[in-house]
Specification:
Number of helices: 14
Distance between the termini: 26 Å
Helix content: 25-40%
Strand content: 25-35%
Length: 697
C-alpha cells in the first residue's frame, strides 16, 4: 500500500494491473462512537466545473446512470464508520477530467471533532492500493479528501485534504452547483432527504421549471405570515431522476375473504428440504439481479463489479481435479468487451458455510481468472471475525476477492430501492416486491441471523448460576452473536425507515475489534448484561438497548437533553406533551448532573409533571426514557425467542417513542421558522451567496 502525503499524486496503473474499477473508502472515528459524515462525488470537466447539476452525487442522488459512480453506503467500524464509493473509471464520460471525493457534516458538527480521518483506494479484489490521512482538521464542516484525474489514458490519484467552513453548500458552489441550503423544504412539507436531515442541500437545475399545482387558499394567519416574509427564490427540480417506488400501504384486495392468497411469482410454501431452499433462493435472487439493473448493481458494485450487462447462472459445473464442482451460482458482467465473473455459494435456514467448499471455489476462480467468490448466508459478517478461513496462493498473480452477503443485507437493499430510492419502472419495482415477499416468507429460509449459537444457553445458565468466569471463550462467542444481531436490527430498521441506522461502538483509540469483544465478554461475565447503541437518522438521540440476562428483561432507552437555561417545570410539561401518544408504561427518569434522579411511569406523571423534578432543586440535565420487555428464553426463531424479542423491543420503542419525539421537534422547528418569517421586514433582500472560507488550500 502506498501511503500518501498532502499534495502527492500517483498513477493507479503503477499500483495495480487492474485499476479500471476501484473502491474509494472514507473513514473516521470519534471518542463517543457516534460521529458521522456523508460522502459526495463531483464529476468535473476541463474547466474545473460540473457539466450540470447531475454530476453531483450525494445521499439524495447516490448513483450515476452509466455506473461510473455509486455511493455504496456505510459500514460500522470500531469507534466510527467507513463510507464507500464504487468508481468504474472505464465508464466515466470522456469529457470528465476529474472526480472529486469529499465528505460533509451537518447540524453544526465539525471535522475537528472526529479522529482518524482517512481515505483509501482499493482495487476490485479488495486490496488497498493507497491511503491518505488528514491530521489537521478543525472547524471545517466539509472536506475534499482527494481526487482522481486523467493524464492521457491513465488515471491518477491526488491527496488534497482541503477543508471548508461553509459545509457542503460552499464546497459544491465552488464547482458550479447551485445549492439551496436554507432548510425550507421540511417547513413547507417537502420531501425529507434520505439522510433524515430535513435541512439537507437541495440541488437546483437551470432547466425548464416544473409547474406546481395551484394551492388551496391558506388560512388568514398563514397569509399574513407569508406576506411579511421576504420573497423566496424559486426552487427548481431535484437532480435525482424520477423513479418508481411502491406505496407503503397496500391497495385494497379484491378477494372475497382473507383466506384467499395472492398469486406469487416466487412461491415458497412447497419447499421441503434445505437443498430445495438453497436452489430456489439462489435462482430467485440471481434472476432478479439480472433483470433489475439498479438492484444487481447495488449488490455487486461493492465487490468491484463494473456497470454493464449482467447475466446470472445456477448449478454451473466447473472442472476441479477428478470431480467437477458445482457452485450454487455464477454472476457475469460485461463491459467494453471485458468480463467480470463471481462464483456464488449460498446457504439458507441458518446452515453454516463450509470452509472446504469455499476453498475449492477460491481455487477454481483463481485458475480460471475469475474476480470474486461471493458467499451468501443468514450470518452477518463482522470485522476481525471471518465466517470462513481460506488460504490463498501468494505465487498466483491473479487475485480473487472473497466477499460475503447476508440475506438481511439483500432484503435491506431491496427495501431501500422499492420503498425509498426508486427503480427505473413499475415492472422492476414489482419484481423487487416479489423478491422481498419471498425472502420474508417463513418457509424460504432467508430470514437473516436467527440463532445466537451453541454458547448462548451455557452462558445464560452460567450467569444465572454465577459460575461464568472472565476469560471464558463462550462469552466472546455470545458477544459476537450479539453484534451480528444488532447489525441486522440496523439493516432492517434502516430499510423500513429509508434512513441510515448504524450501531455505535464506543472504544478507546487503537483498540482492535478482537480486544473490544474480549472486554465486552468480561463485562458480560461480571454484570450479566449485553448492551448496544443504535444511531438512527432523524432520532433525537442515540437508542440504547440492554439485555439483562439475570433478570430476563430488555430495556430500550434514549436520553433527551434539556436546553441550557430552560425552566425545569416547563421542560417537564413540554416532555409530557411530546409523549402524549406514547405508551403509559414508558419510564421517565430525570438526569441530575449526570446521575439518576426522580422517576416514574407516564401513567403516573401525566397528571403531575412536577413529580419528576428533584425536590432539592438540583439542576436537571435531561431525561431518560425507557421501555421494558420480557426477554425470550430460546435462542432462535420461536415467538418467545431472544432474537425476536430484541427486534420487537426496538420496533416498539422507535414507533411509540422516538417517532413522537421527532415529530414534536419538527413541529417546534416549523413554529420557530414561521415566527422568524413574521418578524423579518417585508422589504426584499438581495440574493447573494454565503461566504466561503476554504481552509488548508
Amino acid at each position: 500500500m502506498r501511503e500518501m502525503t498532502k499534495g502527492a499524486n500517483v498513477g493507479l496503473a503503477d499500483l495495480s494491473d487492474d485499476a479500471g474499477t476501484v473502491i474509494a473508502a472514507l473513514s473516521w472515528s470519534s471518542a463517543t462512537g457516534d460521529g458521522d459524515a456523508d460522502v459526495s462525488v463531483l464529476l468535473l470537466d476541463r474547466s474545473g466545473k460540473v457539466r450540470s447539476d447531475a454530476d453531483f452525487f450525494y445521499y439524495n442522488n447516490p448513483a450515476a446512470a452509466d455506473g461510473s459512480v455509486q455511493l455504496l453506503g456505510k459500514t460500522p467500524t470500531d469507534g466510527g464508520s467507513e463510507d464507500r464509493i464504487g468508481l468504474d473509471l472505464t465508464a466515466v464520460p470522456e469529457d470528465v477530467e476529474r472526480l472529486v471525493v469529499a465528505a460533509s457534516r451537518y447540524g453544526g458538527s465539525r471535522f475537528g471533532d472526529l479522529d482518524d480521518l482517512r481515505m483509501t483506494v482499493s482495487d476490485r479484489s479488495g486490496e488497498v492500493l493507497l491511503g491518505f490521512s488528514i491530521t489537521d482538521a478543525s472547524v471545517e464542516s466539509a472536506f475534499i479528501f482527494g481526487e482522481l484525474y486523467r493524464r492521457g489514458t491513465e488515471w491518477k490519484y491526488r491527496a488534497i485534504g482541503q477543508g471548508y467552513e461553509t459545509g457542503l453548500a460552499g464546497l459544491a458552489t465552488d464547482f458550479g452547483i447551485d445549492v439551496d441550503d436554507e432548510g425550507e423544504g421540511a417547513a413547507e412539507g417537502e420531501e425529507v432527504s434520505a439522510s433524515g436531515d430535513a435541512g439537507g442541500p437541495v440541488v437546483e437545475q437551470a432547466a425548464e421549471p416544473v409547474p406546481a399545482p395551484a394551492p388551496s387558499a391558506p388560512p388568514q394567519e398563514t397569509r399574513e405570515a407569508v406576506a411579511a416574509a421576504p420573497p423566496k427564490r424559486a426552487r427548481g427540480p431535484r437532480t435525482a431522476k424520477k423513479k418508481v417506488t411502491l406505496p407503503a400501504v397496500a391497495t385494497k384486495s379484491l378477494a372475497e375473504n382473507d383466506a384467499w392468497r395472492a398469486a406469487r411469482l416466487f412461491p415458497a410454501s412447497n419447499l421441503k428440504s434445505d437443498k430445495e431452499r438453497e436452489v430456489r433462493a439462489t435462482s430467485v435472487l440471481l434472476s432478479v439481479m439480472a433483470q433489475v439493473p439498479e438492484f444487481g448493481r447495488r449488490l455487486t458494485a461493492a465487490f468491484g463489479a463494473p456497470a454493464g450487462r449482467m447475466q446470472t447462472f445456477t448449478e454451473v459445473s466447473l472442472p476441479h481435479g477428478d470431480t467437477p464442482k458445482r457452485p450454487d451460482g455464477v454472476i457475469r458482467v460485461e463491459r467494453a468487451g471485458k468480463l467480470w465473473t463471481a462464483l456464488v455459494e449460498t446457504k439458507t435456514n441458518g446452515n453454516a458455510l463450509k470452509p472446504e467448499q469455499v476453498q475449492n471455489y477460491m481455487d477454481i476462480a483463481a485458475r480460471r481468472g475469475y474476480e470474486a467468490v461471493i458467499t451468501l448466508s443468514n450470518d452477518v459478517a463482522l470485522e476481525g471475525s471471518p465466517l470462513v478461513e481460506v488460504k490463498t496462493d501468494g505465487r498466483r498473480k491473479h487475485k480473487v476477492a472473497l466477499r460475503h452477503l447476508s440475506w438481511a443485507e439483500v432484503a435491506h437493499q431491496a427495501q431501500m430501492l422499492i420503498r425509498h430510492e426508486g427503480v427505473g419502472n413499475a415492472a422492476h419495482a414489482w419484481l423487487l416486491q416479489e423478491l422481498l415477499h419471498y425472502l420474508q416468507h417463513e418457509n424460504s429460509g432467508c430470514h437473516g441471523f436467527q440463532n445466537m449459537g451453541p454458547s448462548w444457553v451455557p452462558v445464560r445458565n452460567g450467569i444465572d448460576e454465577e459460575t461464568l468466569s472472565q476469560g471464558d471463550p463462550r462469552a466472546v462467542e455470545v458477544v459476537e452473536s450479539w453484534e451480528r444481531l444488532i447489525r441486522q436490527v440496523c439493516l432492517r430498521l434502516g430499510g423500513e425507515l429509508g434512513q441510515k441506522a448504524l450501531p455505535v461502538q464506543r472504544t478507546q483509540r487503537g483498540t482492535t475489534a478482537l480486544s473490544r469483544r474480549a472486554e465486552h465478554a468480561d463485562r458480560l461475565c461480571e454484570e450479566g448484561r449485553l448492551a448496544a447503541e443504535l444511531r438512527v437518522d432523524g432520532s433525537p438521540g442515540t437508542i440504547t438497548i440492554v439485555a439483562d440476562l439475570r433478570t430476563g428483561k430488555l430495556r430500550t432507552s434514549v436520553e433527551i437533553p434539556v436546553p441550557e437555561g430552560a425552566y425545569p417545570l416547563t421542560s417537564a410539561k413540554r416532555l409530557m406533551r411530546q409523549l402524549a401518544d406514547a405508551p403509559a408504561d414508558l419510564h421517565v427518569e430525570t438526569l441530575v448532573e449526570g446521575q439518576s434522579g426522580p422517576r416514574g411511569t407516564l401513567e403516573r406523571l401525566r397528571p403531575e409533571p412536577g413529580d419528576v423534578l428533584p425536590r432539592d432543586g438540583s439542576r436537571i440535565t435531561g431525561f431518560r426514557l425507557s421501555l421494558f420487555k420480557g426477554m425470550g428464553a430460546t435462542r432462535g426463531n420461536a415467538e418467545s425467542g431472544f432474537i425476536r424479542s430484541v427486534d420487537n423491543a426496538v420496533d416498539r420503542f422507535h414507533s411509540h417513542v422516538i417517532v413522537h419525539l421527532a415529530q414534536a421537534d419538527r413541529r417546534t422547528a416549523r413554529r420557530a421558522s414561521a415566527q422568524a418569517a413574521v418578524s423579518v421586514p417585508s422589504a426584499p433582500v438581495p440574493e447573494q451567496s454565503a461566504p466561503r472560507t476554504p481552509v488548508g488550500a
